[in-house]
């Protein structure tokens, strides 16, 4: 049984997940080609590169939004769903206070505008030429996030607008994750308990304790791991990926390891590598 094990000792986000799978042997060129089937390639540019996090060589995956995305989905009300860690006593802990969906400062404005309704995302994925398996996995992950957002805000799934999560980069993160799992022929996914971080986070409704409300809702039923790192380590997208895909939460299973990958997060901590480790192998 070809198994993927997620070691979430430093949390999980969509870009960390894709970076880790590319690092473990996922085909990045094929990923780019498959993502073109969504027909939104004019809205973004992908990049991936090797970085070193606290001595660990890892792959950093980024989605950069184009101006097209900014203008196409600007609609008067700005939902700034930027997450920012709020803990000034621990500033030395993280050089980057921004949430992972802000991949670089000059693209920050795009994230304030780029949102689609849940139904738009379903239509986008359903209407694509992606394989049925990839469509189903992607839609299951988006549904998990949509239901959590709806519950938090007291609205039906149909009325949910994905401000942060519906930004183009998250569509790419989720569909990209589904493509790589399919292409790597993963049959089973297991995970460690999920580290969410500590402290407070600033979202568009105010300052909340970590994990943020939507992230916590998505992680119902998932074992969490305590952390003293004052930062948001797990994003809603990462939470949904691990929650929907993992069949079991455990320590490393009995397996013959075939490849290991490290996906880099955006943040830097003094004594803690901000990476997601994945292990692919044959379960014994």
Automatic annotation (TrEMBL):
Residues 75-116 are annotated as: Disordered. Pfam families: Ni_insertion (PF01969). It comes from Priestia megaterium (strain ATCC 12872 / QMB1551). Residues 75-108 have a biased composition (Basic and acidic residues). Keywords: Nickel. The lineage of its organism: Bacteria, Bacillati, Bacillota, Bacilli, Bacillales. This is LarC family nickel insertion protein. The keyword Transcription does not apply. It comes from the Bacteria.
């Amino acid at each position: 049984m070809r198994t993927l094990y997620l070691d979430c000792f430093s949390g999980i986000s969509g870009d960390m997940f894709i970076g880790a799978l590319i690092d473990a042997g996922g085909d990045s060129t094929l990923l780019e080609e498959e993502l073109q089937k969504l027909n939104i390639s004019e809205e973004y540019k992908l990049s991936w590169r090797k970085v070193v996090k606290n001595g660990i060589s890892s792959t950093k995956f980024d989605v950069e939004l184009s101006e097209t995305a900014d203008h196409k989905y600007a609609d008067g009300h700005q939902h700034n769903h930027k997450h920012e860690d709020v803990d000034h006593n621990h500033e030395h802990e993280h050089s980057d206070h921004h949430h992972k969906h802000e991949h670089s400062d000059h693209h920050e404005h795009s994230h304030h505008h780029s949102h689609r309704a849940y139904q738009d995302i379903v239509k986008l994925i359903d209407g694509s030429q992606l394989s049925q398996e990839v469509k189903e996995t992607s839609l299951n992950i988006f549904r998990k996030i949509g239901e959590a957002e709806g519950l938090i805000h007291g609205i039906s799934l149909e009325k949910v607008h994905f401000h942060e999560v519906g930004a183009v980069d998250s569509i790419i993160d989720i569909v990209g994750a589904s493509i790589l799992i399919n292409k790597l022929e993963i049959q089973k996914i297991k995970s460690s308990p999920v580290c969410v971080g500590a402290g407070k986070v600033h979202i568009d409704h105010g300052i909340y304790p970590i994990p943020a409300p939507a992230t916590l809702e998505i992680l119902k039923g998932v074992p969490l791991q305590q952390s003293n790192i004052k930062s948001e380590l797990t994003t809603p997208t990462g939470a949904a990926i691990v929650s929907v895909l993992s069949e079991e939460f455990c320590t490393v299973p009995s397996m013959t390891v075939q490849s290991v990958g490290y996906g880099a997060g955006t943040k830097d901590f003094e004594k803690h590598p901000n990476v997601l480790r994945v292990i692919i192998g044959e379960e014994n």
